[in-house]
Amino acid sequence: MEPRELDGRPILAILVSDFDRWDQRAVGGVGRWDGSVLSFECSDPPTSLPMPPHLALPVTAYPVDHLSVTPGEAASVRSTLAGFEYVAFLQVPAMPEGARPIPEPMLLLFARAPAWRPKQRNIGGDS
Predict the structure, then answer these.
(1) What is the pLDDT of residues 82-108, one digit of tens each?
(2) Which of 4, 56, 83, 84 is deepest in the core (most CB within 10 A)?
(3) Do the beta carbons of residue 99 and residue 12 sit within 8 Å?
(4) Could you count the other beta carbons within 10 Å of the beta carbon of residue 16?
(5) For residues 111, 38, 9 and 63, what is the CA-based torsion angle, rounded to 10 degrees?
(6) How many CB atoms are located within 10 Å of the residue 125 CB?
(7) Nearest to 103 by CA among 126, 60, 61, 72
(8) What is the 3-state secondary structure (H, E, C) of the chain?
(9) How many domains is the chain partitioned into structurally?
(10) Would 77 be classed as within a structural domain?
(11) Looking at the domain assignment, is residue 57 inside a domain?
(12) CB atoms inside a 10 Å sphere around CB 56
């Protein structure tokens, strides 16, 4: 994916702590491409984070129906993804104020499909 394709697109960022891979939260925002750097920006809280384009996946690629155990679980995940075109996974040194916990049904889907989440650099010595 070209970075410019993410400019202005609504993105749900899944934030993963550099220090604790189990500390994961979510925040909504948009991609910004300035011609040389792609970043994720949100207004509440005001945050700008560098965003590697290969860590953003279209919401349409998220296998909700395939991985959901119940219709209620699928509905909860769809509700979380509503209004976003992409999901991005970003590692952060500190969680921005206002980042909220990831809804449990979405975490369960991550657990059922660990290969779906883009590979990130090694966190805390795990492989």
Answers:
(1) 999 998 888 899 888 888 888 887 777
(2) 56
(3) no
(4) 20
(5) -20
(6) 6
(7) 72
(8) CCHHHHECCEEEEEEEECCCCCCEEEEEEEEEECCCCEEEEEECCEEEEECCHHHEEEHHHCCHHHHCCCHHHHHHHHHHHCCCCEEEEEEECCCCCCCEECCHHHHHHHHHCCCCCCCCCCCCCCC
(9) 1
(10) yes
(11) yes
(12) 25
Question: What kind and span of H or E run contains 92?
Answer: strand 86-92
Handedness of CA 75, 80, 82, 87 (dihedral sign): negative
Give the Cα separation of 114 and 99 in Å (integer): 22
| Residue 61 CB partners (closer than 8 Å, separation 6+) | none
Q: Residue type at 76?
A: S
Q: Is the peptide bond before 53 cis (omega within 30 degrees of 0)?
A: no
Q: Is residue 25 part of a domain?
A: yes
Residue 1 neighbours by CB distance under 10 Å:
12
Residue 123 lies in a domain: no
Domain extent, residue 98, equals 3-112
- Per-residue pLDDT at 69: 83
| 120 vs 74 pLDDT, higher one | 74
Tokens, residue 79? 């509700």
Answer for the pair 47, 29: CB distance below 8 angstroms, yes or no.
yes
